[in-house]
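Researcher: Re-running this chain for the archive, since the previous output was lost when a drive failed. Same request as before.
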Amino acid sequence: MGYTPDFISHCIKPLIHDIKKQSIRVVTNAGGINPEGCVNTIKNVMSSEGVELSVAMVTGDDMMKNVKEIKDSGYAVDIESGRTLPSSVLSMNAYIGSFPIADALDKGADIVITGRATDSALALGPLIHKFGWKRTDYDLLSSGSLAGHLIECGAQVTGGICTDWDTVQGWDNIGFPIVNCASDGSFLVTKPPCTGGVVNFGTVAEQVSE
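Model: Regenerated structure tokens:
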């Protein structure tokens, strides 16, 4: 399918009514290498459930149309091995950043689907939209990127890669992280109540350095 089917089965299908009712805005890179297919599937779910939402698709990561140009440029070489691109290329993607996501939210999208995007952009894009951060607000953008990095790997920051792993309780119900962010770039890392795992200085510091 080229996109993440779990996003449809575990998020969109069971939660589509809550997303609508609570005005939850969803941003995900679950589009993989087929964001259009992901968007069309979401629209089918919306139609079958009788829910109307605005769905945006962020494109620009697909570089397949540039394969010949990149091959001819001489840049398509693996520095370590010296190998060039194979004659048959099935997919070539560039990671896009946060401002296209912010733009989609600015235009009123309820759900934003991207293809290949930097993991931190999924958090930074909404922060840019919410707080009006500019491209030259380097400290704020750095802070937002850090917030995104901390939560991008799920339970890693809630004890999943904790050095003192034997002190972590509730592995079978480990909570995924949440960041509560402020307009000045400060943020608090936490997790849902009544979940396992732990968030402390050590778990956060280890994920920062990961």
